Give the backbone structure.
Amino acid sequence: MLAGQRLLDYGCGSGILALAALRLGAAEAWAFDIDPQALLATSDNAERNGLRDRLRIAVDAGDLPGGFDLAVANILAGPLIELAPVLAGQCRPGAALLLAGLLDDQAAEVAVAYRPWFDIVREGGREGWTVLAGCRHRN
């Protein structure tokens, strides 16, 4: 499923989602976080796992090239709501979106924020946490 795909890990933290995508066959992953320490950790983890050649790190959100096939973000509901137009702008038509880090009772509000750009549904949950999955509108 990820073979040849370009992924964006927005709010990458340690880079675990980007690195997992690369291990699963993504051609390239871009990682961005507002915390410089997170970017260092992501770079170090990519190096340790032999994946640094396919990982790109953006120190500024403006450095992201867009046109991603898949975007993932595991951050809090408030920032996810604010980032809806930003993440939509980074995704090509038909791109997939996965949003995590949401409490069950926050999922509906986050989904509403993404509906102008994505068909989005609750994909799953566990112990009070929800994952939302979406597909970027083609128009």
Notes: The chain has a mean pLDDT of 95.
